[in-house]
Amino acid sequence: MAFDYDKWIRPGKLPHIWCPGCGHGIVMKGLIRAMETLKLKKEETAVVSGIGCASRLPGYIDCCTLHTAHGRAAAFATGVKMAKPEMNVILVGGDGDGTAIGGNHFIHACRRNIDMTYIIMNNYIYGMTGGQFSPCTPTGHKASTTPYGNPDPGFDIAKLAIGAGATFVARGTAFHANQIDKLIVEAIQHKGFSVVEILDDCPTTYGRRNKYKSVIEMMNRLKEVAVPVKAAEKMTAEQLQGKVLTGVLYKEESKPEYTAEYAKVIERAKAAK
Amino acid sequence: MEKTLPKIEIIEKYCKGCHICVEFCPKDVLEMKGFYASVKNLEACIKCMQCELRCPDFAIKVITE
Ligand SMILES: Cc1ncc(C[n+]2csc(CCOP(=O)(O)OP(=O)(O)O)c2C)c(N)n1
Ligand code: SF4
Ligand code: SF4
Ligand code: SF4
Ligand SMILES: [Mg+2]
After folding, report:
1. Which of A18, A31, A77, A206 has its Cβ near the most Cβ atoms within 10 Å?
2. R_g over Cα of chain B
3. Closest listed ligand to the CA of A202
4. pLDDT for A52
5. What superfamily would CATH give domain A8-272?
6. B9 CB near a chain A CB, below 8 Å?
7. B27–A contact, CB cutoff 8 A
8. What is the pLDDT of residue B1?
9. Taking the model in full, what pTM does it have?
10. What is the pLDDT of residues A149-206, one digit of tens each?
11. CB distance B56–A18 less than 8 Å?
């Protein structure tokens, strides 16, 4: 049966502002399916973002939402979660928002292992502002600010998250739409800071500069580079050249969760004379 | 047993003409007609839902029983 997205969309908000073929809409649909699968209650769910095309997402979702300052989704979301630990807090945003201006907030949310889910739509570019390179733009690729090729190496968001202390890290792509909701469901269920990176496409500012003739070519590239973690186990290093692992990349359940630890601090403070 | 066909609804108000549903339909059911996606061969549809899942714009619905 056709999925009923309308239930989670603010009335009158569609069509959304994203360009034709932009993967952010595919990710938003995945998030909606995940929220529906988990039967989340709108009044107990907050979707929080910073600034960017990806960060426009909360404007469409009919639940508690916060559209904050550039790079600051994690800071505002932490505030929500600390004040109301019973809420499901979901952060959404782009690679620029999350790893450039917001990189600091990102790593510290990971370090604290606070029980929130962060969906990061990585299109390797600052889409909204006209295609400047981001910390995720691969070496040699073109952006409006690197017309002769980017000299910087790009971040591996998943490795960054694991290194900084996140306890659930997964990766999917906008092409593999069917998997997006499943990864998000697992991430929300996980007690701790969960990061779901979705490799995304920005045909408007990234695709055309990097010789992609169409959205379809960009989607086909996502299809080709993605290798599920299970399949990768049987592949040689040579076969894995240029590929990107997808699925649940890391899961750790023994690390204490931050709001639970903070509740203990409150108890200790109350007991102190 | 007779095969039951789905109803495929394309909401032109939302469709941005990106071609994604058309290109990735495994059975070549859809086509672009002018700016919008359109149904070309409903008989071939296997109700895999790929078009509905991938449409970034909430513009295509595969309605099955
Ligand atoms: C403090 C501040 N600095 C810079 C900007 C300009 N700005 C807006 S969005 C953006 C980058 C967005 O890139 P990303 O998060 O990857 O989202 P995308 O548009 O690619 O989805 C920048 C630099 C801003 N709005 N605020
Ligand atoms: S500029 Fe890029 S990221 Fe922004 S809506 Fe258009 S395609 Fe999407
Ligand atoms: S449901 Fe599957 S077969 Fe039918 S039109 Fe959509 S993609 Fe094609
Ligand atoms: S995928 Fe959606 S927006 Fe793109 S052409 Fe098909 S119906 Fe239109
Ligand atoms: Mg971006």
Report:
1. A77
2. 11
3. 2
4. 98
5. Thiamin diphosphate (ThDP)-binding fold, Pyr/PP domains (3.40.50.970)
6. yes
7. no
8. 59
9. 0.98
10. 999 999 999 999 999 999 999 999 999 999 999 999 999 999 999 999 999 999 999 9
11. yes
